[in-house]
């Protein structure tokens, strides 16, 4: 029977109720049309960032290589060779000068790489501890902040006037306190600034919580999620007051609306794709999201498996 023939008030009310129910269910996952952009076999991607001219940059967990990918035609190549499996390239961000700030994972370090030449412009040893995993990085107006998943602290690189790189002696270690909980697993992971740029937001993967962190004191306050979940939280991306939380092993992206201070977030959407296989981080260009798939625990040999970036059309 066509809808044009439905005239009974009860049926009209029923349809209206179903529509209203659908509109107020922000937690329902939504499949988006997507496509795969292939990466080299065995690359083992984790972080992604997008610069000018539709160029994305990805870091390798396998050996620390940096791969430049043309998002228009899928062509790419390694522009910077890593130092081997003990020095992976994890999270990374690019600035307006084309410099890549790269987290060094179990190496306990960070590097700054010229995205055009692949040259290492500077390197910083944040910690000599064997218990470390420098995971992700965010660029703020005056600092580059790195997370450490195995130690309750952040590392900061002060960016001088005209965004000059600091001397190694200027590296800041910021212990996390307040509401922060450190568990026996990966803790601090993705990191962004708050909409008002006065603090940081860090996802704690083990605790499945978001924290607002004071950049001066390290005091962490749990973000009120209004009952929503960030279980398996990994990479973060903020555009205005919209916060994307990649939930890696859940194969989801949770989309939140933040208040300006970053103290409260409300779930607005949950995105998924059949092309997801443990996505870790996310970058955005135009109306598309780009997520590398790390495939943690889903392939028999990570160093020989196929890898790709999933593009979601928003």
Summary, kept brief:
The protein has 314 residues and is mainly β. It contains 1 helix and 26 strands. Helices cover 5% and strands 45% of the residues.
Question: What does this entry look like structurally?
Answer:
There is one protein chain. The chain contains one helix and 26 strands. The protein is mainly beta. It has a single domain (30-313), classed as TolB, C-terminal domain (Neuraminidase), CATH 2.120.10. A hairpin with a 4-residue loop joins strand 21 and strand 22 (252-258). The longest helix is centred in the N-terminal third of the chain and has 15 residues, at 9-23. The chain is globular.
Features:
single chain; mainly beta; five-stranded mixed β-sheet; 1 helix; 26 strands; globular
Write the layout of secondary structure elements.
Elements: H1 9-23, E1 29-31, E2 34-39, E3 45-50, E4 55-60, E5 66-70, E6 76-80, E7 92-94, E8 99-103, E9 109-114, E10 120-125, E11 134-139, E12 143-148, E13 153-158, E14 172-175, E15 177-178, E16 188-193, E17 199-204, E18 209-214, E19 219-222, E20 233-239, E21 242-247, E22 252-258, E23 265-272, E24 283-285, E25 288-292, E26 307-313
Parallel strand pairs: 1-23, 15-19
Antiparallel strand pairs: 2-26, 3-4, 4-5, 5-6, 7-8, 8-9, 9-10, 11-12, 12-13, 13-14, 16-17, 17-18, 18-19, 20-21, 21-22, 22-23, 24-25, 25-26
